[in-house]
Design brief:
By secondary structure, the chain is an alpha+beta fold. The chain has 9 helices and 15 strands. An 8-stranded mixed sheet has the order 5-4-3-6-2-1-7-8. It has a 5-stranded mixed sheet with strand order 9-10-15-12-13, with helices on both faces. The protein has a two-stranded antiparallel ribbon with strand order 11-14. Bound molecules: adenosine-5'-diphosphate (ADP) and magnesium ion. Keywords: DNA damage, DNA repair.
């Protein structure tokens, strides 16, 4: 089973930033309102994620480290009925198979919390711990038993940049959650969690930049789109700063991103992309079952209709700004 977990880890856990992403998404799934991420040496030495979410029942903690044991979907149609980011039940077993992991968790009202310690997939310790509601997990010695992976990592600067990127994107996507990222005891990025996207933008990119974001809103019989898009002068060299949420869930969809970019027409320079957060509300049944779980790429019924709605909304908003 350890080998199978390591193989799965090869797919899910590529670098420290993948660990951060999986752990933070778990905290989001657990309804956390505050998520602290503490890393040392760009996460290669340690990654700690502390949340104030629902916690894990003491009797379920070791089960959370069993592959697929926690899978929340039984058929692919469930994907959008469960309102959660995780659904494969692979992250914790994968991480525990290639690192040293200590998890502490307690649910509301529990008399005691539960601590488990795994290293290279083996359970080393299982004990009671304090009953603070929520979960904290510390990941050390990432890839200690898979040297090829370790060798493949880039410079600390590059690895840290990827972590910062993930936290910033999640903070933008979930403005009602307070995020904090600390690297080697120094605060790197944070958000207050009051639901205001512009404040998150200001915290991450500065007040000047946040002013260059425009609120958009559009609606038709099937879709409701709200969000923020940047002025054409506020661009990035990658599409990574475009976040799309469907019914509160962070997804990837190339076509929707394309529609957003198309709304800018010739206002964007070649190789430059806007920053944007789009929150789309729709009937979950319009989400196609054609899904690639690893990539979070989803397809939608009536996709071209939604693309038109997005493109037009962006185009019109940019016109009124001129
Ligand atoms: P998945 O998220 O795909 O279900 P994971 O391996 O990431 O699988 O997590 C396994 C399970 O452990 C989750 O389904 C959840 O029940 C529990 N879990 C993990 N992290 C947390 C957390 N921070 N708070 C509460 N429960 C958690
Ligand atoms: Mg998960």
């Amino acid at each position: 089973a350890i080998l199978a977990d390591q193989i799965a880890a090869g797919e899910v856990i590529e670098r420290p930033a993948s660990v951060v992403k999986e752990l933070v998404e778990n905290a989001i799934d657990a309804n956390a309102s505050k998520i602290d991420v503490l890393v040392e040496e760009a996460g290669i030495k340690t990654i700690t994620v502390i949340d104030d979410g629902d916690g894990i029942e003491a009797g379920q903690v070791t089960r959370a480290f069993l592959r697929h044991a926690t899978s929340k979907i039984t058929d692919r149609n469930d994907l959008f009925r469960v309102h959660s980011l995780g659904f494969r039940g692979e992250a914790l077993p994968s991480i525990a198979s290639v690192a040293d992991v200590i998890l502490k968790s307690a649910t509301a009202g529990a008399e005691q919390g539960k601590l488990v310690h795994y290293r290279g997939g083996s359970l080393l310790e299982e004990s009671g711990t304090d009953a603070r509601k929520g979960t904290s997990i510390t990941v050390k010695d990432l890839f200690f038993n898979t040297p090829a992976r370790l060798k493949y990592l880039k410079s600390q600067q590059t690895e840290l940049a990827q972590i910062v990127d993930i936290i910033n994107r999640l903070a933008l996507s979930y403005p009602e959650i307070a995020f904090r990222l600390v690297h080697n005891d120094k605060a790197v990025t944070s958000s207050v969690g009051n639901g205001n996207i512009q404040q998150v933008l200001a915290a991450i990119y500065g007040v000047q930049q946040a002013r260059k974001m425009l609120a958009i809103q559009a609606e038709d019989a099937d879709f409701k789109v709200t969000g923020y898009v940047s002025l054409p002068e506020l661009t990035r060299a990658s599409r990574n700063y475009i976040s799309v949420l469907i019914n509160g869930r962070y997804i990837k969809n190339y076509q929707l991103t394309k529609a957003l970019i198309k709304g800018y027409g010739s206002k964007l320079m070649v190789g430059r992309f806007p920053m944007a957060v789009l929150a789309i509300e729709m009937d979950p049944l319009l989400v196609d079952v054609n899904v690639h779980p690893q990539k979070q790429e989803v397809r939608l019924s009536k996709e071209t209709q939604l693309m038109d709605l997005i493109e037009t909304a962006v185009k019109e908003r940019l016109q009124t700004e001129n």
